[in-house]
Amino acid sequence: MPKLSDAAASLLPIFIDRIVPPDQDPGAVEAGVLGFIGSRFTADPSTVEGYEAGLILLASRGFSARSAEEQDAIIGDLEGHPAIATMISQTLEGYYAGPDSAGAKAVGFRVTA
Amino acid sequence: MKYDAIVVGAGAGGGVAANVLAQRGLRVLILEQGRWLNLASSGRDHLRNHRLSMYGDNTGLDPETNRRVIAEGGLTKIVRPYQAGYNHNAATVGSGTLVYGAQAWRFHPLDFRMASTYGVPEGSSLADWPIDYDELAPWYERVEDEIGVAGSPPSKEMPVRAEYPMPPTALPEKGRRLQDAAERLGWGSQRVPLLINSVPRHGREACVNCQHCVGFACPTDAKNGTQNTMIPRALQTGNATLITEATVLKVHISDGRATGVTYVCEGQSVEAQAPIVVVAAAAIESARLLLLSGVQSDALGRHLQGHYYHGAHGLFPDKVWDGIGPGASVATLRFNHGNDGIVGGAMIADDFIATPISFAKGSRPKDVPGWGQAHKDWMRDAYPRFITAGGPVQEVPSAECQVTLDPWVKDGFGRPVARLSGTTHPETLRTSTFINARGEEWLRAAGCETVWSHEPALRLSAGQHQAGTCRMGDDPRMSVVDRNGGVHGVEGLYVADGSVHVTNGGFNPVLTIMALAMRTASGIGG
Predict the structure, then answer these.
(1) Does any domain span residue A1?
(2) Which of A86, B15, B21, B323 is the most buried (most CB within 10 A)?
(3) Chain segment B447-483, per-residue pLDDT in tens
(4) Structural domain containing residue A12
(5) Do A17 and A27 form a contact (C-beta atoms < 8 A)?
(6) Position B10 in a domain
(7) Cβ of A108 and B384 within 8 Å?
(8) Mind telling me how many Å the CA of A55 is from chain B's nearest CA?
(9) Each residue of B366-381: pLDDT tens digit?
(10) Is B13 a domain residue?
């Protein structure tokens, strides 16, 4: 199975925590979104390529060394890029999908039966 | 193997037809491509269901062997069952009725007379049905009773009718506010009738108002589909045999008569004989099966339609979330017809409870960022204050919106897959835009501070409400089946699903599919 390069892998947690930042509710990393993305890699190995491309694109802008505000500006600049768009939408899926997800708890989606 | 009748597809139409035939003493073979499923086996995956199917679905077809081709704007693409454009229906015993929202609407009397009422817009294939509301009314009443509907008295726009067999389900706060607003606006409203037990009935429990109704199986089996009503009753007679995971390859037609089918189950090809074959595989597959079986009709596969769904979104100043499902609770029928300069209209109601991820993906106004702290703040703030009011917009059909056999792509059995092409008629967009505006008006009157909707775009529409491809009519040159559901020119071959709808009403179509199937099956051999 293809894997992310070390350079890309090190940026992924930083990226997803800008998409869903930690505050009074968990951020994406704490909510286990890396595990969700890993499951997408397993289900569809071609996904890895897109993440690699997206993350290397961020790296080329010096992403990891920037402040949170600057990182948001970089993502905002690139959000129309297909690889970045997929990374954003899958991060949201990992966070908000499921009756027991961190996102469901955060918005008050309570399951009674 | 010989039977008296073969029913292809155990969904809304097929399940009803099979039971009617079995109760009449006919030996019936029911063939269903899916399996028996329940909540335990279909689950509550928010990314794999019929409301949002990102990577598969909970009642799915095998994505490896099932494909369709979408031809759009000169481009074609191959799509898998869970992908946009496939227009999938649940593949399971009961089909969509296992996981539907169960809205139990009768069509309006004018829905059967669209061409007479509005004229025929240029380039459209708008037409009248060969039967009218009064013809279908007794069948509506029977399925409401036999399958089980909970509801309140209908709006004044609808003909007088008998009381529903069950009272309505619990009223959520969003519905209460819409009810008050409809009163103030002078529109009138009614509770959304649901094929759901609001009280224990027929040996099954009542609805517990959970948050996972549409898209998922019911935790108390209170949702009435054919899988827990008509099909078990058919099997109980001892006259019916249900074979699951069976794909029908072809209907055999000889000298203008249906003689049986060939189906594949567990890799074995089986020929089953019967003088009666009822096709109920939903509008896309039913049309494809008839095309593959050599049925000759210029109308076959044409007039593919569904429902445009847009609707208005709004935010109340305070929290309205109370988690009382299913969510579709109060409707106005004020705009189904009689809208100046507009063809038809739609029933408008509050939407089912949205899962948080569906809300995150689909419900954002344009000025709210799609990610980051602002998005997270918006999700927490808006979700409990949020409402959607919308409805199934009656489409103006086009003969060019159609199902054909793809010349190149084959399914797992080597047969051409369905190729979907064309779009709805542009008039549908005008109706849709009009309905969005009425939805916005309703939400403002209900107290929403922020209200928005999305502009509809011209596209092919089919979805789970797919209809029209085996149009019913008296003239064999213009239609595929006659007024009794029988295929013109082929004795013993019937269609009993949404395919036969000439137009698709401004309502969820399942009750009409069920009522027509009951009428068709009752008339077979009669």
Answers:
(1) no
(2) B15
(3) 999 999 999 999 999 999 999 999 999 999 999 999 9
(4) 6-97
(5) yes
(6) yes
(7) yes
(8) 17
(9) 899 999 999 999 999 9
(10) yes
Q: What domain range includes position B183?
A: 5-41+51-523
Q: How far apart are CA B127 and CA B120, in angstroms?
A: 7
CB contact under 8 A, B209 and A113: yes
Contacts of B264 (CB under 8 A, 6+ apart): B246, B247, B249, B270, B413
Instruction: Tell whether B64 lies on the interface with A, counting CB pairs under 8 A.
Output: no
- The closest of B54, B57, B53, B77 to B67, measured between CA atoms, is B77
The answer to whether B220 contacts chain A (CB < 8 Å) is yes
Q: Is the pTM of this model over 0.80?
A: yes
CA angle in degrees (0–180, nearest 5) for B194-B305-B196: 10
Chain B residues 353-372 within an 8 A CB cutoff of chain A: 355-357, 359-361, 370-372
Residue B495 lies in a domain: yes
Question: Residue B1: which of B219, B206, B208, B243 has the closest Cα?
Answer: B243
Peptide bond into B356 cis (omega under 30): no
Is A81 within a domain? Answer: yes
Domain total in chain A: 1
Q: Dihedrals φ, ψ of B103, to 5°?
A: -70, 130
Across chain B, what does the average pLDDT equal? Answer: 97
Question: Measured between CA atoms, how close is B371 to chain A, in angstroms?
Answer: 5
Residue type, B178: L
Complex ipTM: 0.98
Residue A107 lies in a domain: no
Report yes or no on B46 lying in a domain. Answer: no
Residue B526 clears pLDDT 80, i.e. is over it: no
CATH number, position B127:
3.50.50.60
User: B206 touching A, CB under 8 A?
Assistant: no
Interface residue of B196, B376, B381 to substitute, partner A, most A CBs within 10 Å: B376
Number of folded domains that form chain B: 1
- CB distance A103–B360 less than 8 Å? yes
Cα angle B523, B15, B506 (rounded to 5 degrees) comes to: 80
